[in-house]
Design goal:
This protein is α/β, with parallel strands linked by helices. The chain has helices at residues 2-10, 48-56, 82-85, 88-96, 106-112, 126-135, 150-163, 177-184, 213-224, 284-296, 303-321, 330-333, and strands at residues 37-42, 68-74, 101-102, 115-118, 140-143, 167-170, 191-199, 228-235, 239-246, 251-257, 265-270, 273-277, 327-328. Strand 1, helix 2 and strand 2 form a beta-alpha-beta unit. This is Tat (Twin-arginine translocation) pathway signal sequence. GO terms for molecular function: nucleotide binding.
Length: 335
């Protein structure tokens, strides 16, 4: 099992870009507003679904979002998390008003669309839902959390690769202006450290940080890049502090706030200064990345980095269970 997992994780450039234009049953080239790339949504139990629909189905969308239209949606969605289930009827009505057809199964959905947004707020059914999309050979964006466990996240990426289906997953916080600038525009020179924070409310059915902590952890990894070697976790009744040590000796921290009203952000420290992240800037920057992914079928994020993010969170849980001892990420990635 270790050798199988190790060989998969090393093949980072192949995942998400395995399928060529000619191998898919449609072309994403030359699409216009009159002949758009048809998007299907799985899961109307999250505010992300109507938010993305409004962006793509706008009368005059941003140029980067032009040539797409959300045409169909399968509402479910969590059937066990009450706070998610209760939102489904209202979000059904919202997307119907934007011209979206509601369908009764994922199998029906994939027959009507070119690409898929897997938006189900509950990460537990993502593996089963993604398998139906992979079978249909449709490029797919999977919203956070990519799955309800690291094990399922790894299976999703491996099965996407085996099926030759492009996919990627991300929190919208990765694409805040300053976060993106630190990573891609050398805004503060080499990043020496980062302190990130976000709400970290709990959902008992998910590993601790997977539910909302993912947002702040994704900020941390966007700034620091991959290569975290170990984590140590410290807990109080009101917050969680996870200290990560990178292979080059740099230190990055994530602070998750359990209660109260807290924003998403952090501070990155570089050789040319420091930069503050936050507040949340909405879903449009992520939608633009999704649109580019649907056109090119190339993930903007190395799959190994996404898997490392989930290994970081699972290692943080293990550290907490063991009273705050240091836990190596490779004990998760290669177990």
């Amino acid at each position: 099992m270790k050798s199988s997992r190790r060989s998969f994780i090393k093949k980072t450039t192949a995942i998400g870009a395995a399928a060529s234009l000619s191998s898919l049953p449609f072309s994403l080239l030359g699409k216009t507003q009159n002949n758009p790339i048809k998007i299907g949504i799985i899961g109307l139990d999250t505010s992300h679904s109507p938010a993305f629909t409004k962006l793509f189905n706008a009368e005059n969308p941003k140029p980067e979002l032009a040539g797409f239209r959300v045409v169909a949606a399968y509402p479910y969605g969590s059937k066990t998390i009450q706070s998610s289930m209760d939102r489904i009827p209202g979000y059904i009505e919202q997307v119907k008003e934007l011209g979206v057809e509601i369908v009764d199964s994922i199998e029906t959905l994939v027959q009507k669309v070119d690409v898929v947004l897997l938006e189900t707020n509950d990460g537990k059914p993502h593996l089963e839902q993604a398998r139906a999309v992979f079978k249909a050979k449709k490029p797919v964006f999977i919203d956070k959390p990519v799955a309800g466990s690291f094990s399922d996240a790894l299976k999703i990426y491996k099965e996407a690769e085996a099926a030759g289906v492009p996919m990627f997953s991300s929190s919208s916080l990765r694409y805040q202006k300053n976060v993106h600038a630190v990573r891609h525009e050398n805004k503060i020179g080499k990043v020496l450290a980062c302190d990130a924070f976000s709400p970290a409310t709990l959902e008992p059915s998910h590993p601790d940080l997977f539910w909302y902590g993912i947002h702040g952890v994704e900020i941390l990894f966007t700034a620091m890049g991959p290569g975290c070697e170990s984590v140590t976790r410290f807990s109080t009744p009101d917050s969680e502090l996870v200290v990560g040590t990178w292979k080059d000796g740099r230190i990055g921290t994530f602070r998750g706030m359990r209660s109260g009203k807290h924003d998403y952000g952090g501070t990155a420290f570089g050789t040319d200064g420091n930069l503050f992240f936050g507040p949340f800037e909405g879903y449009e920057p992520l939608a633009i990345q999704i649109a580019d992914f649907f056109r090119t079928k190339k993930s903007p994020i190395d799959p190994q980095e996404t898997l490392e993010i989930y290994a970081f969170m699972e290692a943080a849980d293990e550290s907490k269970r063991r009273g705050g001892v240091k836990v190596r990420l490779d004990s998760i990635l290669l177990s």
